[in-house]
Amino acid sequence: MNSEHTNRPVAEARPVRRRAGGTTGRLLLAAAVVASAGLALPATSAAADAKGAAAQPAGSGSFYDPPAGLPAPDGELIRTEPMRLGLSLPGLNGPLPGKATRLMYKSTDSTGAPVAVTGAYIEPSARWSGDGPRPLVALAPGTMGQGDRCAASKALESPLAVGDGAVSVGYENLAIYRFLQRGVAVVVTDYVGLGTTDRVHTYVNRVDGGHALLDAARAARALPGTSLVPTSPTALYGYSQGGGASGSAAELQPGYAPELNLAGAYVGAPPADLVEVLEGVDGSALAAALGWSINGFVESAPELKPIVDSYTNDKGKQALADMSTGCVGNGIFGYAGARSSDWTTTGQSLPEIVEDEPVLRRVLDAQRIGRLTPDAPVRVATGVHDGLVPHAQARRLAADWCVRGADVTYVPIKGIDLKEKLVNHFTPLLSDQTNAISWVTDRLAGKPDAPDCATVVKKP
C-alpha cells in the first residue's frame, strides 16, 4: 500500500472539476510560500538512523501503514526511520539545523480506542544556551488539509509539493527551524489520520489533537540516541488548528500525561468554540475547512453519517469526497468562497443545520476548549481582526482559563484590517511568531511569566 490517501471516505469519490481560486486564495498561498521559501531547497544530507528495536530501514515498505496490533502505552514508539529535511547543510556538529527521524507512535483517540499517529523529531545541531538540559517543543501544525500527502512530517521533506492534483505548503517549517536554531529539540505531530493510511484525519477534534500532541512529546522522549533526558522541560506550540490542539493538550495534560515536565503552551488563534468558527469559515477563502470538519467528525462518530447523508446534495457529497484527499492549497484554490448552503438538500447553511439538530449541537459542544484547567502557563494570542477563527471566541478561552485559575498571558494582535478573513487570520502567525517563540523559549529556560488574568477577565 502506498502512502497516498487510502482512507475510508465519507462519500464515494468521483472525478472533480476544480474551479480556479480567486485573488484571495492566491494571496494567502503566496504568503505561505514566502514564509517557508527559505526552506524549499533540495536536501543535501539524510538524517541519522534512529537506534533501537523500533527502527525501520528507509524504503522497507510504506512507513505510514499502521500495523495490525498496537502497543498498550500511549506515546510508545511503533517504528522509526531516518528522514531528510528540505533544507540540510553541513556543519561542524552535524547537519544543520539538525538530524531528523520519522516517528510512528501509539495514542488514544476520542472514542478511547488505540490509534497509530505519525510525526517527526528533529535533534538540533545548535547548543542549548539556557540552564538545564536541552528542552523539547511539541509542535501542533496549523491546517494542512485532509489527504495523507499533506502530513506535516512530509512537508518537512518537501516544503512546497505540487503534483498528483495536490498542493501542499509546509508553512510551519519556519517556526520549527527557528526553534532548532535556538537549540530547542522539536517533535511535530501529524495528528490522527493525517499521514497514516487507516482512517480519515479527524480535523479539529479536541481530544484527538490534544492526545496526539502529548503523545508526540512522549515518543520523542522515548527515542534512543537523543540529548533529551527525563527532566527535559517540554512546551507546546500551535496556531489555528495547531492552537486548538495546543490548548486542548495544555488542559488535558494534568490528567492524561502528568509525567511531562510541561513548562508552557503557546495557543495561537485557537478554534475553541467550533459553532462560532463554522460561521466564520462558511463562505470564506478557507471554506474547505467545513468539509474537513464534517469528514473528521463522521470518522470519529459514524452515527452522524445518516444525518450528513440526509442533508448533503450531490454537489455536497462530491465536495466532501474531494476534500477528504486534498491539502490546504487544494482547499483554497478549489473552494475559496464556497457556501455550505450550496451543498445541502434544504438550502440551509451548516451553522443553521447545527442549530436545528440536537445531535450535532452536542457533538460540537463536546469540542469546546476551556472547561479544564492547564497547570502550566499559557499564552493565548489572537488577531483582533480575525473573523475566520473569530477573535472573540479565542479571547473568551483566555478568560475561561483565567476564571478557572490558570496562569494566562493574553495577547491581542492589533495589526491592520486587510479586509479579508483568511489574510487577517494568517498574518498574526507571522507577525507574532518572534514574540511567541521567545515566550516559549523563556518558559523552557525557567524564566518567570507575568500572567495578566485581571485584565483579561475585567474587559468585555
Can you walk me through this structure?
The chain has 460 residues and is α/β, with parallel strands linked by helices. The protein contains 16 helices and eleven strands. The protein has one domain (25-273, 367-458): Rossmann fold (3-Layer(aba) Sandwich), CATH 3.40.50.1820. The protein has helices at residues 23-36, 152-157, 173-181, 206-222, 241-256, 274-281, 288-300, 305-311, 314-323, 328-335, 350-356, 358-365, 391-403, 421-431, 433-444, 453-458; strands at 77-83, 98-108, 114-124, 136-140, 160-163, 166-169, 185-189, 234-239, 262-268, 378-383, 408-413. Strands 1-2-3-7-4-8-9-10-11 form a nine-stranded mixed sheet, sandwiched between helices. It has a two-stranded antiparallel sheet with strand order 5-6. Helix 13 (391-403) links the parallel strand 10 and strand 11. Helix 1 runs parallel beside helix 14 (421-431), helix 7 (288-300) crosses helix 9 and helix 11 (350-356) packs across helix 12. The termini are far apart. Mean pLDDT is 87; it is low at 1-61.
